[in-house]
Write a structure and sequence with these properties.
By secondary structure, the chain is mainly β. The protein contains no helices and twelve strands. A hairpin with a 6-residue loop joins β5 and β6. It starts with a strand and ends with a strand.
């Protein structure tokens, strides 16, 4: 079973920056639908940024111009660079993949709708 391991969260002042990372475990063949979501207390989980099926990027209006999603296929890792952070950005951030194909025990398998464990981002003076 594929696991997504997140890192990079923490406490930052308004206007500061953080970079979140999400790494898929195992011998990965292909990852489709890499993205980032967040959930603040009392609010619904929302999509923040993602790679579309066409390979382009899509961002929530609230983060456009400030956040950048990127990936390193060789490392089976994707990132969320967050600049000019605002208090409203504080949330638990989750990475997500629509589909991950991997090798295990000499066979190929595919997992769907995979979530990271979440990482806390706090923006405060």
């Amino acid at each position: 079973q594929v696991q997504l391991v997140e890192s990079g969260g923490g406490l930052v002042q308004p206007g500061g920056s953080l970079r979140l990372s999400c790494a898929a475990s195992g011998s990965i063949f292909l990852i489709l639908g890499m993205g980032w979501y967040r959930q603040a207390p009392g609010k619904q989980r929302e999509i923040v940024a993602a790679f579309t099926s066409g390979g382009t990027t899509n961002y929530a209006d609230s983060v456009k111009g400030r956040f950048t999603i990127s990936r390193d296929n060789a490392k089976n890792t994707w990132y969320l660079q967050m600049n000019s952070l605002k208090p409203e950005d504080a949330a638990v951030y989750y990475c997500h993949a629509d589909r991950v194909t991997y090798f295990s025990g000499g066979t190929r398998d595919t997992d769907y709708d995979i979530w990271g464990q979440g990482t806390q981002v706090t923006v405060s003076s």
